[in-house]
Design goal:
Length: about 80
């Protein structure tokens, strides 16, 4: 299982991480761990491929999840596993 993150935190003045950015970072990491557990062991019986997740956004409020799979059946399985 592969999870690809494309998170671009909003830029704020100063070099230190704001409390909001820290909460976003920790929250995103927890989401990654939960998704990885839910998707663990999924593999397409027909194509012997694992689904991939691409997660993008600037923080917790606008995360977008895209499931990439070898076929529609695997995409549906992955989506069900994430619910």
């Amino acid at each position: 299982m592969k999870i690809n993150f494309k998170i671009k935190p909003s830029q704020q003045q100063g070099s230190s991480e704001s409390v909001g950015q820290m909460i976003d970072r920790v929250g995103v990491e927890q989401i990654r761990e939960q998704m990885q557990k839910k998707m663990e062991g999924l593999r397409c019986a027909e194509h012997d491929q694992v689904p991939q997740l691409e997660i993008s956004g600037t923080g917790l409020k606008d995360l977008k999840i895209n499931i990439r799979a070898c076929c529609d059946k695997m995409r549906v399985q992955a989506a069900r596993a994430l619910k």
